[in-house]
Amino acid sequence: MPDALKAVLIWIAIAVVFFIVEGVTVQLVAIWLAIGALASAIAAYFGASVTIQFFVFAVVSLLALLLSRPFVKKLIKTKPEKTNFDRVIGENGVVIEDISGDVIPGRVNAMGIDWSAVSADGNPISKDTIVRVVKLDGVKLVVEKNTDDAKHIQN
């Protein structure tokens, strides 16, 4: 078997390995290297030296990465998936156990669920006060007194 054919087959095998790695991963990590390996196989077919083959591999892989990565990132851009817990943010609730501040939690009923809650500003909030959920801290609500005229509670 001629040396040029061996080099072509080696580069094709390398490309196949990179394509397999790409198929197994989900982050587009090896596709550019596979393209570079295919370009090097073409260079080997036309009799390029091993040095030129590696140069073609490096340059084509880098160009493939630089030219396609921004486009591919836009196509596969993922948005964080909201959970049911996120729905409680911005909702009103009723303090069912005094909140003594931002350290010792009290209890709030929001959306019909009993939650552990702390005050957003660190001030105590007494029982039966209507509050608005500002954010989640783990499984604990961070709340503030609701100053809106419409103090509707969703259960």
The value of Rg in angstroms is 30 Å
Number of strands: 5
Approximate strand percentage: 15-25%
Terminus-to-terminus distance: 78 Å
Query: What are the secondary-structure elements, in order, as H or E?
Result: HHHEEEEE
What characteristic shape results from the CA principal axes? rod-shaped
Topology of this protein?
Layout: H1 3-24, H2 31-45, H3 50-75, E1 92-97, E2 106-110, E3 113-119, E4 130-137, E5 140-145
Parallel strand pairs: 3-5
Antiparallel strand pairs: 1-2, 1-4, 2-3, 4-5
Structure, described:
This protein is rod-shaped. It is 41% helix and 21% strand. With 155 residues, the chain is of the alpha+beta class. It has helices spanning 3-24, 31-45, 50-75, and strands at residues 92-97, 106-110, 113-119, 130-137, 140-145. The protein starts with a helix and ends in a 10-residue tail after the last strand. The chain has 3 helices and 5 strands, in the order αααβββββ. It has 2 domains: 3-75, no CATH class; 84-145, Beta Barrel (OB fold (Dihydrolipoamide Acetyltransferase, E2P)), CATH 2.40.50.140.
Concise summary:
The protein is built from three helices and five strands, in the order H-H-H-E-E-E-E-E.
Give short descriptive properties of this protein.
single chain; 155 residues; alpha+beta; OB fold (Dihydrolipoamide Acetyltransferase, E2P); five-stranded mixed beta barrel; rod-shaped
